[in-house]
Amino acid sequence: MVAGPDISFEMVFLGGLQRSGTTLLGRLLSQHSEVSGLVGTPTAEDEGQFIQDVYPNDHELGRKTSRNLRGTSMRWAYNPKAHLTEADAAMIPDARARLDESWRAYWADESAPMRLEKTPSNLTRTRFLQAIYPESRFLIITRHPIIQALAVRKWATVPKKVGLDLSKVVDHWLHAMDTFRKDQPHLRSVEVVSYESLMAQPAVVMVRLQEFLGIQRELLDTSSVRNTSTAYDRYWDYYRSHGRADYVRLNGDRPRDRVYESLERIIAPIASRAEMRRLSKLEPRLNEYGYSLDDLHCCGLRVDA
């Protein structure tokens, strides 16, 4: 039997693909006097997934070997263990107590009526978390899959750093979002917001999310909201033109990055032709989410639209 709700607080679970704005959105909402986030955890982004043992974290889901962490953000949703539902919750009757205990010491304000836990792979275990926390709410943030694929490239293996396999990363985005979309009708309280709309109108989006959460309206500081997609926009121009536009460095400035750059200048203009054909086949699926290969600034759709 799944544990009943603790009426002392309400959980909000924030999810979305890595580098889609989960950390930014979590920090913005945690400014609210009624919302408490996790702070001071042993992980850089204060993600609850890394300080619990109820379900596998993104690294465990995505790694190919016990030591390989590179590229896990581009594979985790393919793992069958990434998708959890009510049936999985029923198999772990003490899941609620274990999660509460794991996170207890890290809430910024234990007296807050609403607690926000941010983990990318919450995207594919919404039904599981709802079964454990029946009064929970879900926030999902999306970002254009091309931009997201380029933004996670710094964690990629060498082939992806030199312009190969872009379509594979986009396919992973689609697989994760398709899983969420199938689960969405089972959720009692869920809101989808795009990174693009947050960048365009941060104050408006934060008002909308406060209304969704049912908390009093407060003026939140959105000065930290800055669009960081310019370099990715320019790289996409280079990539889809098969090297005819100006090259844009995405890998950094370390000596080995210079080697990647030299290889990419040779490989990407050639490989991009086949990759663009593969990506074009994914275009109808991207359109379902309000995105297109022809416009990196479109704002996406609410997934239930």
Describe the structure.
A 5-stranded parallel β-sheet has the order 2-3-1-4-5, with helices on both faces. 41% of the residues lie in helices and 8% in strands. α6 crosses α8 and α8 crosses α12 (255-288). By secondary structure, it is of the alpha/beta class. It is globular and about 60 Å long. It has a domain at 10-155 and 166-226 and 284-288: Rossmann fold.
Salient structural properties:
305 residues; alpha/beta; Rossmann fold; five-stranded parallel sheet; 5 strands; 41% helix
| Largest beta-sheet details | 5 strands, parallel
Query: Strand share of the residues?
Result: 5-15%
Oligomer: single chain
Order of helices and strands: EHEHHHEHEHHHEHHHH
CATH topology of one domain: Rossmann fold
* Average pLDDT metric: 93
CATH evolutionary superfamily of one domain: P-loop containing nucleotide triphosphate hydrolases
CATH class of one domain: Alpha Beta
